[in-house]
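Researcher: Excuse me, tokens okay?
***
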Amino acid sequence: MTDRSTTFVSTDWLAVHLDDPAVAIIDGSWYLPTENRDAEAEYRKAHIPGAVFFNLDKVADTSSGLPHMLPAPEEFARAVGALGISDKQTIVVYDGAGLFSAPRVRWTFRTMGAPDVRILEGGFPQWIADGRPVESGEPKPAPKMFAAKLNAAAVRSIAEVRNIVATGSATVVDARSGERFRGEAPEPRPGLRSGHMPGSRNVPSGTLVADGRLRSDAEIEAAFAAAGVDPNKPIVTSCGSGVTAAILALGLETIGARNVALYDGSWAEWGGAQDAPVATGPAE
């Protein structure tokens, strides 16, 4: 188990640190296209005072053809430095759903070398529910230096996942819904096959979240145990496009798993690779 105070902050804590130059606040909201929500427009309308908007689709490798893939470290450093974020700050991330895209933003910053990145517990909905102040528009922070260094151990490529599937050297855990995992529901992105990677396990990301918060350690342990996942063994998390896979990685972190990586391309890449093996039905 881990101390959640190193992963989350409360609205009480953040309210006290709104004007602290050692703290950077990020609105990392991102929504599925089916939700018909414009995260950046919502940010401009209302956000936590001093927060900057981190666009998962723009601070990314836009040349890959895949959604929100990690950019090169130098590109990441340039983009977040322009947002006024330094790797020396305590970085607090939140999203408009409570707990959906913020884990992916946190994972991105940590993978790029930021040592202290936390999530606002309950996200923006909790901030509003607690009667905290908001502001509109877009702040213009002074640029800062961000020393980015990729932690290659935190991310897996399709070549590495092919080897894992072939050898069983790690457990792939899929965050998509059971219907998509089993191949009973079509993928929302056109051109992708339905099903899952042979040998993978299914822990839908929603099972780890309740009311915009991460569930208890006991509930998280039970969810992974029910899927046949041993947190003491090497794990690779995956999902549709690498966002909700970070929720699984966050849950695993809180229950003490130490050998966890994220497949950045996820099903957007695997399901579109015609020579990648695909299974349907329940987990084997």
